[in-house]
């Protein structure tokens, strides 16, 4: 990018939880944006290496980070450190969010809360909780009402190369979404705000399941038509599931929705796509997880999602097929054939679209 970075009017003190691919890539982005950045890791080896060499020994290994970023850990950040922060950024897998927030809660000054930004994309195993629910359970409604969620098509390794990137940022509090956008926004990193955190969270979590499906199809040797079908029908399933949660169906057309779905379903950079591709080629799930070296949230999300769609009675045949391949030992090629053998159905059956159409059909005397 030729455009110079914009220095923030008010540089923020930011503590990033998680020093994996995304935590360290966002620390890099914020450090380069003239914020004062700390990054917590549970690994003493990583902390020592990062502070000495300005490189992450485990993730984005080729990248040199700005010397201003300080790694902290392995002990959990102290109340003294947390209370000096303007922003807490959570870049840990969804299954670790409850544990992290439970440890964090006693360190928070509830009268002077920092801005809390979450970037994980998944559903909690066992509870089906979204991160907003986990925040509510662990930190209470005062924190949940102002928490913000950053999501969208954003591979870590492309962000550190300053590839033009855009994301959605959502919160129940529009003011806090704006504040988070101000922290991140740069000429190479555009932020768009939304007031639908549930839709944004669901979109980010669910696209990972469809990325596995898309990878499976490619691994089986299917081509472009098949991928376009999976992306489009995946979007229909995501939107149907989202509207049952009260999410705005338009959120699924955002960067966090179709933007990230398209990215993750069509690139071998995606870990979720890679899991699917290797399954399609005949590898065993456990072997893939053991050698991936990084989290693929779709694997755990597929489990929670299956329970959700069964409970709500929502039609989501692709998500159900991914679950059966991952957890019930269904043969991928056979399950793909079964999906294609489903009877024909109406293409769009969103509850909201249905409501409007029914009024018109009543006026036309076609329906009661
Ligand atoms: N990598 C990307 O391009 C990308 C982009 C957007 C969003 N995300 C999302 O960000 C989240 C993190 O992904 P990532 O790519 O950094 O994963 P990663 O596997 O590269 O790193 C995860 C990091 O979190 C740490 N961790 C795991 N459990 C923890 C716990 N209980 N407490 C504290 N730390 C814990 C791990 O040690 C590791 O350092 C995921 O939800 C992912 O979907 C990733
Ligand atoms: O590597 P994946 O599949 O976790 O995808 C990473 C991000 O979610 C892309 O936006």
Automatic annotation (TrEMBL):
GO terms for molecular function: glycerol-3-phosphate dehydrogenase (NAD+) activity; NAD binding. NAD(+) binds at residues 18-23, 156, 271. Residues 13-175 form the Glycerol-3-phosphate dehydrogenase NAD-dependent N-terminal domain. It holds the Pfam family NAD_Gly3P_dh_N. The active site is at residue 207. It catalyses: sn-glycerol 3-phosphate + NAD(+) = dihydroxyacetone phosphate + NADH + H(+). Its EC number is 1.1.1.8. It comes from the Eukaryota. The keyword NAD applies. One of its GO terms (cellular component) is cytosol. Keywords: NAD, Oxidoreductase. Substrate binds at residues 121, 271-272. GO terms for biological process: carbohydrate metabolic process; glycerol-3-phosphate catabolic process. Residues 196-334 form the Glycerol-3-phosphate dehydrogenase NAD-dependent C-terminal domain. InterPro entries: 6-PGluconate_DH-like_C_sf, 6PGD_dom2, G3P_DH_NAD-dep, G3P_DH_NAD-dep_C, G3P_DH_NAD-dep_N, NAD(P)-bd_dom_sf. HAMAP family: NAD_Glyc3P_dehydrog. Belongs to the NAD-dependent glycerol-3-phosphate dehydrogenase family. This is Glycerol-3-phosphate dehydrogenase [NAD(+)].
């Amino acid at each position: 990018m030729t455009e110079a970075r914009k220095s923030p009017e008010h540089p923020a003190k930011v503590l990033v939880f998680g020093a994996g691919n995304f935590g360290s890539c966002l620390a890099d982005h914020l450090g380069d944006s003239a914020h004062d950045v700390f990054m917590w890791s549970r690994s003493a080896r990583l902390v020592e290496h990062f502070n000495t060499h300005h490189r992450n020994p485990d993730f984005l290994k080729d990248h040199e980070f700005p010397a201003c970023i300080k790694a902290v850990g392995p002990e959990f950040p102290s109340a003294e450190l947390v209370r000096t922060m303007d922003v807490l950024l959570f870049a840990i897998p969804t299954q670790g969010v409850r544990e992290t927030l439970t440890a964090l809660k006693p360190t928070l000054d509830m009268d002077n809360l920092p801005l809390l930004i979450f970037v994980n994309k998944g559903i909690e195993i066992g509870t089906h909780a979204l991160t907003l629910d986990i925040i509510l359970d662990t930190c209470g409604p005062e924190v949940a009402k102002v928490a913000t969620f950053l999501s969208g098509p954003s591979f870590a390794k492309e962000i550190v190369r300053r590839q033009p990137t855009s994301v959605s940022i959502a919160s129940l509090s529009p003011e806090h979404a704006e504040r988070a956008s101000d922290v991140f926004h740069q000429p190479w990193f555009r932020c768009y705000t939304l007031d639908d955190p549930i839709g944004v969270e669901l979109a980010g979590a669910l696209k990972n399941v469809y990325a596995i499906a898309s990878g499976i199809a490619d691994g089986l040797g299917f081509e472009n038509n098949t991928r376009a079908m999976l992306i489009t029908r995946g979007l229909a399933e995501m939107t149907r599931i989202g509207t049952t949660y009260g999410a705005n169906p338009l959120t699924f057309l955002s960067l966090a929705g179709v933007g990230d779905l398209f990215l993750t379903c069509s690139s071998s950079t995606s870990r979720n796509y890679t899991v699917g591709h290797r399954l399609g080629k005949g590898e065993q799930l456990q072997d893939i997880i053991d050698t991936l070296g990084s989290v693929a949230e779709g694997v755990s999300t597929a489990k929670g999602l299956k329970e959700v769609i069964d409970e709500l009675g929502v039609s989501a045949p692709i998500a159900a097929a991914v679950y059966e391949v991952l957890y019930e030992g269904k043969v991928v090629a056979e399950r793909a054939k079964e999906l294609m053998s489903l009877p024909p159905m109406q293409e769009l059956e969103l509850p909201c679209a249905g409501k409007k159409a029914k009024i018109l059909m009543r006026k036309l005397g076609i329906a009661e």
